[in-house]
Known about the structure:
By secondary structure, the protein is mainly beta. 5% of the residues lie in helices and 58% in strands.
Amino acid sequence: MPPPNGTFAGLNRDILYIDVGTSPVNRQVIMHDLRGQKEIIQFDYIGDAMISGDEFRYFAPVDSSEIEEKYLPDCPEKEDWIAKGFGVIYGRRKTFNPNNRVHVGKSEFSCFPNQ
Length: 115
């Protein structure tokens, strides 16, 4: 049964994806193996996520101090977000394959408004 604020996000082969949260940040995905009838994993993500082949593609929250200078994203909306009272949160592109249960981090970063 999904959590109270969880919604159906997708079905890929035997994996059910449940999205928890409604804002661009503070979201969580819960993956269930329908064949084995058990939860595989749950973890936080920010921004939009997608299922591509067998992979779940997402941005994982990351502290800006952990991003090498050459990968620090250009955030043209950052000053506007701050002026409106929002914070800024950074994310690192990752993929997760529920078949082998491996997270892979990419050298792609983005920024998001934080409420």
